[in-house]
Amino acid sequence: QLQLVESGGGLVQPGGSLRLSCSASGFTLDNYAIGWFRQAPGKEREGVACITSGSDKTKYADSVKGRFIISRDSSKTAVYLQMNNLKPEDTAVYYCSTDRSYSTSLLDVCFIAGGSYDYRGQGTQVTVSS
Questions:
Q1: What is the pLDDT of residues 47-57, one digit of tens each?
Q2: Which terminus of the chain is more exposed, N or C, with fewer CB under 10 A?
Q3: What are the start-end ranges of the E strands in 29-120?
């Protein structure tokens, strides 16, 4: 069974940091572009960051640029989202997702809006509050 699992969420004060992890069972992440998304209650899903499958190029939403960093671990078995200088508006359920389309891999691109994301995990709650 193919599954993604996110971890690392929690409660943090404004200005604090968290590192989210995305790992997979049943397959490996190194061949696919990975996106991190978030959804707050009553709001639309928002793409936060993504990383390409080939050269690990990254892309970020303007709302998190300069504060969040997406990366892969050296063994390519996990993708991380380092979140710094967190703000109350970052509060949401965060989840990772795979874009396994051939064209995305071939072109070494990733998308924070659109794309061909399929598998996703259950998500991890991030709450930023004093």
A1: 999 999 999 99
A2: N
A3: 33-39, 46-51, 58-60, 68-72, 78-83, 92-99, 117-120
